[in-house]
From TrEMBL:
Region (Disordered): 1-20
Domain spans labelled Nudix hydrolase: 15-228
PANTHER family recorded: ACYL-COENZYME A DIPHOSPHATASE NUDT19, TESTOSTERONE-REGULATED PROTEIN RP2
Gene Ontology MF: a single term: metal ion binding
GO cellular component terms, semicolon-separated: mitochondrion
A Pfam family it matches: NUDIX
Basic and acidic residues bias spans: 1-10
Name this polypeptide is given: Nudix hydrolase domain-containing protein
Gene3D superfamilies found in the cross-reference section: Nucleoside Triphosphate Pyrophosphohydrolase (3.90.79.10)
Cofactor: Mg(2+); Mn(2+)
Alphabetized InterPro entries for the sequence: NUDIX_hydrolase-like_dom_sf, NUDIX_hydrolase_dom, NUDT19
UniProt keyword Magnesium, yes or no: yes
Record keywords, A-Z: Hydrolase, Magnesium, Manganese, Metal-binding
Organism in which the protein naturally occurs: Aspergillus felis
Length: 339
């Protein structure tokens, strides 16, 4: 059928940029979030997991038309560790000969971050200056969903999310723990950029449940990927009693979360989610279905999350009033309302 006069040609969706993020779990089973400044070009003013776009130093990512571009791989893992360091100053690296984690004093880490952001050296070059046998600690990263931005958004990303557990106190060299910001304390982070601005205003460890409370009360801005993953993490790590949990209990909760990450159809380690509007709720929120993997993976066996949906209100570029619900409950409510 010929196009009608005046019809606009359908815009070609932007190619998703490969990126990585880390759900970093502290020695007290708290989660690190970064607060982005309001001038940021993506997720402005939001609280996000550490992460960012892949760079050439991370490894060669498959071409845009190759479905393998959207699979867990060393280049995504390298980017996750590099971006965590650049954005928060937390270093995940070990001596490849001894297996011992590197403990680099904060002052040296800050000098390294400045040099990297000013393009004086790469992350790997800085790492080798600290220890010739140093390598990014990518093996413990556990894939925990991939998200592909919907096609109606101008800037799109294919983001591999990971879980990483910092060692529990009894399992760690104290010199490493001493260089990690204390849980619940604020660490002001100034990240030099090409124009000398500040990209991240602060980084903080808090229980996942507390981050969710702040988002639901409107104290902070959070987007659906972060909210859903924190919702899942909180179910395991925030069981009561939380404040008095023993080391054994902290370890058991981590084990339960890891077991969950490998469960489901597909497992959460392999889910690829490109949110799609399912309906509008009675209170005016958008209900996002999570089962579609995105157009880049149509015709493959990749799939998203079939059982849950996210409620969200999008207003002026921010996400508010988030909630996670079972899809079956949404349709049950819809059936009752139509009676």
């Amino acid at each position: 059928m010929a196009a009608k006069k005046g019809d606009r040609p359908k815009a070609t969706p932007a190619i998703p940029r490969p990126s990585s993020s880390v759900v970093l779990i502290s020695p007290k089973n708290e989660v690190l979030l970064l607060h982005r400044v309001k001038t940021s070009t993506s997720f402005a003013s939001a609280h996000v997991f550490p992460g960012g776009n892949l760079s050439a130093q991370d490894g060669e990512c498959p071409a845009a038309e190759d479905p393998k571009r959207h699979e867990d791989a060393p280049w995504y893992r390298n980017a996750a560790v590099r971006e965590l360091f650049e954005e928060s100053g937390i270093l995940l690296a070990r001596d490849k000969n001894t297996g011992v984690m590197l403990a680099v004093p904060e002052a040296e880490r800050e000098r390294g971050r400045r040099a990297i952001h000013q393009h004086e050296m790469t992350f790997v070059e800085w790492l080798k200056k600290q220890n010739a046998a140093a390598v990014p600690d990518i093996e413990p990263l556990i894939p925990f969903t991939r998200w592909i931005t919907p096609t109606n958004v101008p800037k799109r990303y294919s983001t591999q999310m990971y879980l990483y557990f910092l060692p529990l106190p009894v399992e760690s060299d104290q010199s490493v723990l001493n260089e990690i910001p204390a849980e619940g304390e604020r660490e002001e982070i100034q990240v030099p950029t090409s124009d000398g601005g500040i990209e991240i205003t602060e980084a903080m460890f808090l229980p996942a449940a507390e981050w969710l409370r702040k988002a639901q009360s409107g104290e902070i801005i959070m987007f659906p990927p972060q909210f859903l993953l924190l919702h899942l993490v909180s179910h395991f790590l925030d069981k009561e009693p939380r404040a008095t949990a023993s080391l054994e209990e902290l370890r058991n909760r981590r084990a339960e979360l890891v077991e969950f990450a490998h469960s489901g159809t597909p497992p959460w380690t392999e889910k690829c989610i490109s949110p799609k509007m399912l309906k509008m709720s009675s209170d005016g929120r958008t209900v996002l279905a999570l089962d579609h993997p995105g157009p880049e993976l149509e015709g493959t066996n990749r799939a998203g999350e079939p059982d849950r949906v996210v409620y969200v209100q999008f207003r002026q570029g921010a996400a508010r009033k988030l909630d996670v619900r079972w899809k079956k409950d949404v349709f049950a409510e819809q059936g009752k309302s139509s009676l």
